[in-house]
Design goal:
Layout lengths: L1 E2 L7 E7 L4 H23 L4 E6 L2 H12 L8 E5 L7 H4 L2 E5 L2 E8 L2 H4 L10 H9 L3 E7 L6 E2 L4 E5 H4 L10 H12 L3 E5 L16 E5 L2 E6 L7 H12 L4 E6 L5 E2 L2 E2 L8 E3 L2 E6 L4 H12 L4 E6 L15 E4 L1
Parallel strand pairs: 2-3, 3-4, 6-7, 9-10, 12-13, 17-18
Antiparallel strand pairs: 1-5, 2-19, 5-6, 8-9, 11-12, 14-15, 16-17
């Protein structure tokens, strides 16, 4: 029986792709974001292993000196050579699914969020490369879908957004019913919860992991915005949808509004990650940080709550969750 473990269950490791894309970061910022990620790996290695992909040997060589200190941490840092285009492994990476005691890979198509940010050819090959490297059986699907567009309850429910999965820049020939059936079959689940729109400024077309997250089988954290925020109406509508179900709801504030070149950024506390024994929360140097962290502390009393300044990462439109992918034990 296939089972996709929810993210709060025990991890074997967390996967990352090391930053290298000069089109995204430019030379002036690339080393800064690389150092930021190394500090994130350092944080995670206090709790679990980190598996780190490099697109070529030169990139690994350039980072090796900084990585040496990480190899002395409590847990293990492992490096691999797998060509890729960018860091957003949540979306193009494999779904590590359990089939009994065995790990298998589900491999969906990736087209860089509706062909917005070419090239994506190397990213699209990463699940296959990992399945071959570790001899994990792989099931390939024709449907275009990113990991950040799905949330899992761990007991038979997937939550997603219509804005993303029904967008014609992904699967124009598939109906809502056909997409839902594909999800149910692929993950062996019983129900799909369809929320409407995601956050303003989200180039992924409303990924669920930026505004609504399962944190237990019957609890959802969802962002809420002030009435003068363009996100207010859509988030209230999504909350009302969840209120009709037998779910506990925890409200999260949105951080201060951030913009780049006049365009709003989708910064959100919902883009956190679970690691074994802790939750790592993105913060944005604003007064809402304290309120959000208090909510996480009260929601996860048995876990440590760790904060990391994510203002640089969000400048490229993504967050902690977008740049990581957990592999379950």
């Amino acid at each position: 029986m296939k089972y996709y473990p929810p993210e709060w269950q025990e991890h074997k490791s967390t996967w990352f792709s090391f930053p290298h894309n000069l089109n995204e970061w430019n030379e002036a910022r690339l080393e800064t974001i690389q150092d930021w990620f190394i500090s994130l790996y350092d944080l995670i290695l206090g709790y679990e292993d980190v598996d780190l992909i490099f697109t070529n040997q030169d990139l690994l060589n350039s980072a090796e000196q900084k990585l040496k200190a990480l190899k002395k941490k409590k847990f293990e840092l492992r490096t691999y050579m797998i060509p890729n285009n960018d860091i957003w492994i949540r979306d193009y990476g494999p779904f590590f699914i359990k089939n009994g005691e065995e790990t298998e890979i589900l491999d969906f198509g990736f087209n860089a969020w509706g062909e917005k940010f070419p090239p994506w050819d190397l990213d699209n090959q990463v699940p296959k490369a990992l399945s071959e490297k570790f001899s994990y059986p792989r099931q390939e699907f024709g449907m275009i879908m990113e990991g950040g567009s799905l949330e899992f309850s761990g007991n038979g429910i997937i939550m997603t957004s219509e804005q993303c999965l029904l967008n014609k820049n992904r699967n124009p020939s598939m109906t809502k019913s056909e997409i839902e059936q594909e999800l149910k079959s692929a993950f062996d689940i019983e129900e799909v919860i369809w929320l409407k729109d995601g956050l303003e400024g989200d180039h992924t077309d409303g990924h669920i992991d930026d505004f609504a997250r399962f944190v237990s089988k019957d609890t959802v954290m969802i962002c809420q915005a002030k009435e003068d925020d363009i996100n207010h109406k859509r988030l209230v509508e999504n909350r009302k949808n969840l209120e009709t179900r037998n779910l506990e709801i925890i409200d999260l504030p949105l951080p201060k509004v951030m913009s780049l070149d006049g365009e709003r950024l989708p910064n959100s506390y919902a883009n956190f990650i679970f690691v074994n024994g802790a939750v790592i929360v993105p913060i944005f140097n604003c007064k809402q940080d304290k309120e959000a962290l208090e909510i996480f502390k009260s929601s996860f009393p048995s876990r440590e709550i760790l904060a990391i300044d994510s203002t640089l990462l969000i400048e490229e439109g993504g967050g902690l969750h977008c740049a990581s992918k957990q592999e379950p034990v």
